TrEMBL record:
It comes from Sesamum indicum (Oriental sesame). This is Peroxidase. The gene is LOC105162642. Keywords: Calcium, Disulfide bond, Glycoprotein, Heme, Hydrogen peroxide, Iron, Metal-binding, Oxidoreductase, Peroxidase, Secreted, Signal. GO terms for molecular function: heme binding; lactoperoxidase activity; metal ion binding. InterPro entries: Haem_peroxidase (IPR002016), Haem_peroxidase_sf (IPR010255), Peroxidase_pln (IPR000823), Peroxidases_AS (IPR019794), Peroxidases_heam-ligand_BS (IPR019793), Secretory_peroxidase (IPR033905). Removal of H(2)O(2), oxidation of toxic reductants, biosynthesis and degradation of lignin, suberization, auxin catabolism, response to environmental stresses such as wounding, pathogen attack and oxidative stress. These functions might be dependent on each isozyme/isoform in each plant tissue.
Length: 332
């Protein structure tokens, strides 16, 4: 009698476990390494080959591609919503037209890789995974850090310009604004400091920071937290007026090298944006920067890799959510 009851309880437990596994499996599967191993075995190699064929001729694109990945993940998760063009189906203007995206390049690059993958295995590889893989491979191609990219992301069907404005932090952000934006996405202060380290490569346009040179509080003043010699130099050479549209290397002299010099600049009060300078205004982030600068480049790469892997998992759609777009710029 007792044994039957016992077996019964075991059976119920087994059925419950199976039920839970099925439920979880269908709704919110995890990303996994080499997700396309069976459905499109050459997918990751095709991305890798394309990146390694083209990035050496256009290394500056690597910066734009990792930035695109960041902008994608911060709005509705890493779901390629950043790639959508405005059509009647999107109703509102899409993320692409929002201010932060106006300086993102590399959309054609993504589309060309997508076309190769559609030729190889139609309808299988998501645009969201393509952005994520390309960003990693492009940074590795310029000699930067490698990080793991588990795959299986699916593409979103909504892209909304005003959400991009709300969720991608502005360069004028202070510490608490940055803290809140990152915490909203499950990222901590260490991630904030490490991911900001991507500003060791790439360029900025003057409008992103010109107020710090010419009109910080609206009375024609400069930002006192920006090194005055550095500010004078920018005014004389690059951003000659507040309306200048010139480009500036964010990490002058080493803007193509993924190194620690961004952090060295920030400590010298030469971070370009208020958001870079803001990392010094909190003792916790300041101390993380000091430790990074004192540590090795290998340590930085390792820490950066783990924050990138975390960023690549923000609010991903997997399993039966979302879709696999046929064209990255439009929903199916
Ligand atoms: C912490 C908040 C952040 C703010 C406020 C911010 C803001 C900006 C701004 C305003 C620009 C220059 C745009 C222009 O005028 O051309 C820029 C460039 C860039 N950002 Fe950030 N960013 C942040 C975080 C990140 C993260 C997390 C990444 C990547 C992991 C990233 C990667 C880059 C790169 C690589 C560039 C150079 C782009 C190029 O050369 O085309 N940024 N960022
Ligand atoms: C987005 O679309 C909705 C409804 O179509 C409209 O009410 C709203 O004002 C739009 N917002 C923007 C920022 O365009
Ligand atoms: C876009 O986002 C705004 C809020 O940021 C919202 O008011 C609007 O309805 C959204 N549009 C669509 C089409 O979802
Ligand atoms: C500086 O900012 C103030 C207040 O926003 C504005 O009235 C003024 O025109 C600005 N000056 C310049 C040179 O842009
Ligand atoms: C910058 O542009 C604004 C508006 O386009 C104009 O009012 C202002 O005079 C310009 N400032 C300078 C310093 O050229
Ligand atoms: C790549 C892209 O679509 N960029 C767009 C950003 O927004 C500006 C202004 O709306 C467009 O002109 C760009 O084409």
């Amino acid at each position: 009698m007792e044994k039957v009851g016992y077996n019964c309880r075991i059976l119920t437990l087994v059925i419950t476990v199976i039920g839970v596994v099925l439920l979880v499996g269908s709704c919110c599967a995890d990303l996994e390494m080499d997700f396309y191993a069976e459905s499109c075995p050459k997918a990751e190699q095709i991305v890798y080959d394309y990146v390694n064929h083209h990035i050496p001729n256009a290394p500056s694109l690597a910066a734009s591609l990792i930035r695109m990945h960041f902008h994608d993940c911060f709005v509705r998760g890493c779901d390629a919503s950043v790639l959508l063009d405005f059509t009647p189906a999107t109703k509102n203007q899409t993320e692409k037209v929002a201010t932060p995206n106006q300086t993102v390049r590399g959309f054609d690059f993504i589309n060309r890789v997508k076309n190769l993958l559609e030729d190889e295995c139609p309808g299988v590889v998501s645009c969201a995974d393509i952005i994520t893989l390309i960003a990693r491979d492009a940074i590795v191609a310029i000699g930067g850090p490698f990080w793991r990219v588990p795959t299986g992301r699916r593409d979103g069907v909504i892209s909304n310009a005003s959400e991009a404005l709300d969720q991608i932090p502005a360069p004028s952000s202070d510490f608490s604004t940055l803290y809140a934006h990152f915490a909203n996405k499950g990222l901590n202060l260490k991630d904030l400091v490490l991911l900001s380290g991507a500003h060791t490569i790439g360029i900025s346009h003057c409008p992103s920071f010109a107020n710090r040179l010419y009109n910080f509080t609206g009375v024609g003043d400069g930002d006192p937290s920006l090194d005055s010699e550095y500010a004078a130099n920018l005014k004389a050479k690059k951003c000659k007026s507040i309306n200048s549209t010139t480009k500036v290397e964010m990490d002058p002299g080493s803007f193509r090298t993924f190194d620690l010099s961004y952090y060295t600049l920030v400590l010298k009060r030469r971070g370009l944006f208020e958001s870079d300078a803001a990392l010094l205004t909190d003792p916790r982030t300041r101390s993380i920067i000091t430790q990074l600068v004192q540590g090795s480049i290998e340590n930085f790469y390792q820490e950066f890799a783990s924050s990138m892997e975390k960023m690549g998992k923000i609010e991903v759609k997997t399993g039966s959510f979302g879709e696999i777009r046929k064209h990255c710029a439009v929903v199916n």
